[in-house]
Fold:
Amino acid sequence: MAKLKNVEVNSIVSYIGVHNGYLGDFSYATHAAFYPDYCGLDIDPSMYNGTTRERFIAIISEASPSDQSKILEGVLEKYPIEYFEDLSKEKIISVNEYQKKIRTYKKINEWINRLDGEIIEQGELKNDFEFVKKVLDQSEILISNHSYGSAVDRVHTAIHGYLKALCDEENIIFNEQNVKIQDMWGRLKVEHTSFSIEIKEHQRPINQTAAAIGKILGNMNEVRNRHGFSHPNDDIIEEDEARFIVNLSRVLLFYIDSKTSDNS
Structure:
């Protein structure tokens, strides 16, 4: 799951405000009470060095996505937008600064939704294809440091590379040089020994679902080419849809891996 980026952490600090190096109106004592009282977290800031600002940055940067979400919810509870509206009315902060707080407030809510989004664990593949492992590791780094959208190309490449490796193992040969991902799957589901089995009656709905994988792969290919970062596209996929593609890629990859490795 994509954690907060450094620039986002800095925006949160700016939203709260810094005075003489200290975060908002926090004292060391109230900062320590903030995590259990507002976030429901057992965090001890005294385990970190520095001012309240430096400790807050270290804590939220090291936290898991789930705990980062709780900390952000705590920030908005302690410092709701109405708090800054009152400061603006009292002319303690400028109108421009208040407008900036509103924009950041909206972004923080978006980040909470992003951090709360669920992502399927990557896990370990049974078939040990080195190229696929490297690409999946790259996707994890992109998700953690950037966004789900930035990882769409990598998860697509992982499935493509995996299917190519299976085709090579089965001596499935294509006349075309640049074979589409869905065409590789089309040949594999017919010619790979793990899939060419007699389907019993109770398995037919599952088999029909698996038969739709080709269409799914074709759509993913379209998303990657027209809405991802693999090409200079204007209409980039949004985060909710990108997370869906990442999850879907992992489900498909581990289904194929389980089928082919269990029967090898």
